[in-house]
Design brief:
Elements: E1 39-41, E2 54-56, H1 58-67, H2 70-76, H3 80-84, H4 87-96
Antiparallel strand pairs: 1-2
Helix pairs in contact: 1-4
Length: 112
């Protein structure tokens, strides 16, 4: 049976350039650098006409979705400071500030 890749690749080391990792984009909500997983979040929900997207950690997006309705997110729009003024979100941002960029955990369910 033939090998998928040659054990001794004569051209394997040629033209290999070490790529520099892309600079980490800061999360829109918490401001920490994003890790390997980036969620492109619509601050104004698409169902409410939102077109702009911002980079976020998955856990930060889950927190927003758990604490705000689509109408509330539409009212806040791109005003991240208005979202951070919510006591639950402020507590979350303070808690997650020292976590690893790829940190994940379960978040609270929607309170409705």
């Amino acid at each position: 049976m033939a090998r998928k890749h040659s054990k001794h690749d004569p051209y394997g080391d040629l033209h290999r350039e070490e790529e520099e990792p892309a600079p980490a984009v800061p999360c829109w909500l918490c401001g920490r650098p994003t890790g390997e997983t980036i969620v492109w979040h619509h601050p104004v929900p698409k169902s409410r006409g939102g077109r702009d997207v911002v980079p976020m950690h998955p856990i930060c997006q889950q927190t927003l979705i758990a604490n705000f309705t689509t109408s509330e997110l539409q009212r806040h729009g791109m005003d991240v400071e208005g979202l951070r003024d919510n006591p639950t979100v402020r507590k979350f941002v303070d808690w997650v500030a020292n976590k690893d960029p790829d940190f994940t955990a379960t978040t609270a369910k929607k309170k409705r």
